[in-house]
Amino acid sequence: MEIFIGVIALLGGLFHLYTGGIGTFSSMTQTATHWLIIFSIVFLLYPKKRQRNILDWVFALSSIVIGVYILMTWMTRVNRVSPILPTIEFIVGVVLIVLVLEASRRCTGNFLAITCLLFLVYAKVGPYLPGILRHKGYSWHRVLSVLSFSETGIFGNALNISATFVVLFVLFGSVLNASNGGKLFIDIAYAMTGGSRGGPAKTAILSSLMMGTISGSPVANVVTTGTFTIPLMKKAGYSSEEACAVEAVASTGGQIMPPIMGAAAFLVAEYIGISYGELCKAAFVPAILYYIALFFIIDFISLKKGLVGLPKDALPPLKQSLRKGFHLFIPIIALVVSLMNGFSSMKSIFYSTIALIVIAQLSKGTRMNLPKIVSAIQDGIISAIPVAVSCAAAGIIVGIVNLTGLGVKFSSSLIAMSHGNVPAALFLTMIASIILGCGLPTTAVYIILASLAAPALIQMGVTPLAAHLFVFYFGCISTITPPVALTSYAAAAIGDANPTKTGLKAFLFGIVAYIVPFMFVFSPALLLQGSTFTVIYGIITALFGIYLLSASVAGYLRTSMPLLLRLVLFAGGIVLIHYSLVTDLIGLALFIFILIIQTIRKNTQNLASKAKEST
């Protein structure tokens, strides 16, 4: 059985590498083959019970039969929506839906499967619903025809992106990890930051940032780096909840950090109609602001707690770490350069993966033999399964949205509820993203709201890039948003911390992530749009604003701050991030005001301390 899984995963990896840089297939062939590869092993890798049983094999074999049937017949009927399906196609459609629902339940939990079921029911009961939810209703033949045999359903845009871009980037990350790239990143981060004030926490931030090139999954980031950094942070003087929250927030940022962002980022580029390289450029500044804010917060907390760094002899030598693995950065740099210069994403990642395999052989510590390369390819396909399954399930939702016209109605409703006010519409979209993120993976959250909310924001004057990135960002950070903060809970499990307290701490440490998306909507300079002066000025004021926000969150500026002063400083940080000379002057004035008060309080405390010592 394990041999079967290994063979399918290897063949799947080789197929995607081939189509990435050598041969090409039609879009539907690529997507259907991807579905066949993933679904033929998903039920064996995610069995119904701890031990695989006959039902798991029935699902696996059914997936193979359905996948082969789709591949053999799609050319004769693609995008031909039938009001009445032949009996065989009706059965195929039903089985296909069942397979997708069951796979999504096993891979991502009940919420996504239940959401898909609700949309399927919605397609039938439309005539009996009130208001914007009402539609004429559709027969099961029509629903199955759209979802199973067209490029607007399960085999639609989302699964196609998974079949082309996403799986290749996941394979690159898997090969990089197999060449000890993950250990290299942790060692470099440890050597660079471990000796500074609050060093272990800063190591967690930097290593998680770099690990974003290996995995766009926040939970995977936590598991990879957290087992090392969380105990170090606790030993350095951070509470269990603080240590776990830092790791959770830092790992979540991997989804928004170019060049390899979360899987939904590829969908963003496709929906907007820009290259992935252009998207990476636009996403770079907000991602850097995210990590700089966390870095500032940790630095202020370290000052507040009086924490120091680790002794030099406890740190790995930076030169030695770089010497052992610097060559692994060459394929990453090549990937970034090719993406930034507009080269094809698929060819860029294909040639970067091949280059990585070759360059890794230059050093004994990173060298991979054939079995290790095979294992890396297999692991890459297995790692891509949850994303592919989520995309297939999201295709059900998108297909129903398009069939019933719910997208247009929802957009009109969002505009009406916000009375055409952009900030209000953004706030409502944020709430929807966070609520959906409680149970859905980031990819599914983005796909749903890209169909429902983003068109309304665009209609209200928000640029397509800002609108889609706004939805994408909140889908990402939903994993650190209570009450269901999956990344925070994963970190809490590693650090033996209270999950609820860890989630609240992570929300507080990541507060800037909830503000920046609003700011880049109104300040396009943060997306590198505008003149050079506008962009530079916008970034500088945003950095200053981030500094103030971080001091407010940590409650420290020269000395501890009472709540009222923290709120004033928080307001000053927000107005500084917003691009406007007037708001910048207001933010600067508030900062100077707080700084003067804090300096006076600090001097008073020093005098009192000296007086106490003299007595």
What does this structure look like?
The protein has 615 residues and is an all-alpha fold. The protein has three domains: 2-159, no CATH class; 162-384, no CATH class; 530-607, no CATH class. 75% of the residues lie in helices and 1% in strands. It is built from 28 helices and two strands. A two-stranded antiparallel sheet has the order 1-2.
How do you describe this structure in short?
It is built from 28 helices and two strands. A hairpin with a 1-residue loop joins strand 1 and strand 2.
Q: Can you lay out the helices and strands and say which pair or pack?
A:
Layout (H helix, E strand, L loop, with lengths): L1 H20 L5 H19 L8 H24 L9 H22 L1 H16 L14 H10 L7 H22 L2 H13 L5 H13 L6 H19 L3 H13 L11 H9 L3 H30 L12 H8 L3 H12 L4 H15 L10 H35 L1 H12 L4 H16 L4 H11 L1 H6 L4 H14 L8 H10 L3 H11 L6 H7 L9 H23 L1 E2 L1 E2 L2 H15 L3 H34 L1
Antiparallel strand pairs: 1-2
Helix pairs in contact: 1-2, 1-7, 1-17, 2-3, 2-7, 2-17, 3-4, 4-5, 4-6, 4-17, 5-17, 7-16, 7-17, 8-9, 8-14, 9-10, 9-11, 9-13, 10-11, 10-23, 11-23, 11-24, 12-20, 12-22, 13-15, 13-26, 15-16, 17-20, 19-20, 19-22, 20-22, 22-25, 23-24, 26-27, 27-28
